[in-house]
Amino acid sequence: MRNADFPSVEFETRLARAQAAMVTENLDALFFTSEAEIRYFSGFRTLFWQSPTRPWFLIVPQSGKPIAIIPEIGAALMAGTWVDDVRTWRSPHATDDGISLLIQALQGKHKIGMMMGRESSLRMPLTDYQRLRVGLEDSQFSDTSGLVRTLRMVKSPAEIQKIRTICDIAGNSFGNAAQLFHQGQTLREAFRAFKIDLLAQGADDVPYLVGGAGQGGYGDIISPPSDEPIRDGDILMLDTGATLDGYFCDFDRNFAFGHAGDEAKYGYDTLYRATEAALRTARPGIPCRDLYRVMADVIAQDGSDVGRFGHGLGLQLTEAPSLISFDETVLQADMVITLEPSMAVGPGKIMVHEENIVIREDGAELLSPRAAPQLPIL
Amino acid sequence: MRNADFPSVEFETRLARAQAAMVTENLDALFFTSEAEIRYFSGFRTLFWQSPTRPWFLIVPQSGKPIAIIPEIGAALMAGTWVDDVRTWRSPHATDDGISLLIQALQGKHKIGMMMGRESSLRMPLTDYQRLRVGLEDSQFSDTSGLVRTLRMVKSPAEIQKIRTICDIAGNSFGNAAQLFHQGQTLREAFRAFKIDLLAQGADDVPYLVGGAGQGGYGDIISPPSDEPIRDGDILMLDTGATLDGYFCDFDRNFAFGHAGDEAKYGYDTLYRATEAALRTARPGIPCRDLYRVMADVIAQDGSDVGRFGHGLGLQLTEAPSLISFDETVLQADMVITLEPSMAVGPGKIMVHEENIVIREDGAELLSPRAAPQLPIL
What we know:
2 copies of one chain form a homodimer. Chain A has 2 domains: about 10-155, 3-Layer(aba) Sandwich (Creatine Amidinohydrolase, Chain A, domain 1), CATH 3.40.350; about 155-365, Creatine Amidinohydrolase (Alpha-Beta Complex), CATH 3.90.230.10. The first copy, chain A, is α+β, with helices and mostly antiparallel strands and about 375 residues long. In chain A, the strands form 5 sheets. A 6-stranded mixed beta sheet of chain A has the order 4-3-2-1-5-6, with helices on both faces. Helices cover about 35% and strands about 25% of the residues of chain A. The radius of gyration of chain A is 22 Å and the shape is globular. Chains A and B meet through helix 5, helix 9 and strand 7 of A and helix 5, helix 9 and strand 7 of B.
């Protein structure tokens, strides 16, 4: 395989696990339109998904290898994966953007699973989806997002190694904070310096870098950087999802400039302790809601349910499961998750803290280098 | 507005144009789930879309300003845009991820337009979309992708300025090719050096960088970089979509190493001449299919229809229209498009060439610095 982030056995294992579940659930085929699922089962990786012009399809039959039904422009790249059956058309097409090929491939499949549930999208035009359903009127379509979630949550050793490596890379860049960030620098400049360092350290891409800075805390954790300069007393937070071979890290770090106020120190300490509690608790058999609760109890911020304190990580920046009050997913060995407690530290001010771990038989193993126990002051 | 890539008048104009079209088409509301449309009408820009966990919604009523229905985690960022009516919920939610809020906001709207056509996706779970349709059973949903395409294709002066600036930045980096690329360097290293230079020149992000290298041409134009070293006689092509304030450039450059064979020189010259012909032809009133044809005639590669030779550009790497045989969109002033002819130069070898232009009353104005007339040799 020319274009392989993994040896064939990785994909054979994924397929075997999927097909075993398909037999149990009596599904004749799985039908995918989305980047993560198509990459998971085929190994097809390209930034060309940035273009919304063309739809891409993958079918996983109950037996046999996946079938790719894709625009001709992707044929050479798909031919380099482990997929043998690659059917193409010239896309964009005036009247038939792959729909006839899809109908032909799925004809006679009575029960077809597709991603319809939590965290999923339909990456094809709704009008074409409706044509597909009309063309396959004898087939039943059902939601298979639970099945796929179950497969994808547990990572292979090779996947864990990729996530570990990109965590190391991001850890190295965070370790360079004193060289990269300084008072007077705008947030835009700080983000740029950090991205350049991530690439220089070996990251392939930095699809996600958000953060904030403000006196004693920050008000927002999903914003692009402003042109405001970093000032004495600011807390700077950067949260990065950098990638290696298409696998993400996702963790953040906080830095104070000049000095740190008591509230910021208290916030940092509380979140650090919440994360420590989660690190001690996380192991196979623990439900995600309990791991969430362990962190929420440390924060004990008016005792209320304050959000999501972590999530799965891998092919996507965020994946199932969620560390949240209602997620009853039970942790298993080789799940990779983030621990991401957050709390208010003043009016309109919050702080966040995040680490990446893999669940092992005997507990949590850190993939990100553990943050400093005290808020670092630059 | 704290978080503004544009002054309010930009969004007022977009809204006024949309609402005028909605009156004509008798639409009571537009309903959006996708990043590009939500950003177009609200100014809400974040890399947080990388996380598939939460859905985001925007409603454009026939009169009055847009209504954002979004997860609480985005409230602070959305409050910094020109949108006043921001309705939030704690997402992810166990049972109701914004659907009740959506139904409440759309209740009584009889005709609702949403993106269902070419190049669109449904960025919310299908099961939730079905719940929404059941909850609004008295409403008619129709495809409004044509209306939105018509609006978005014509750029404002402020949008054109952002695209021009990011084209200049990428042009500067391509101008550094002799310093950035060398024989013996792996493609992965070459891509990394180029990305770092783009960021150093002022790009915010490089969401798209693909390309290839090979003796006398390349076999694939959407691949991530390999670990193969660049060799004497290779043609290297990099195609980049870098961004500034969320606006893309999208053009490529070719470089030969050591020497260039006759076929590569002929391919380069042919594509250069095809682009020249398109630059002379492009002006208001010309249908996209005719601009496609002008390039296809120069290439005259067995006279057949060989694909898409360009596309719109702006908020997304590729947008409508398409320079393709069946796109009858008529060019208008202030459309920003790419000219992107491609051709075979040998068995399994192709070459591509791309420029970015804005259509002016008197013809094409280049936004990318024009490629060299002869294949550059490094």
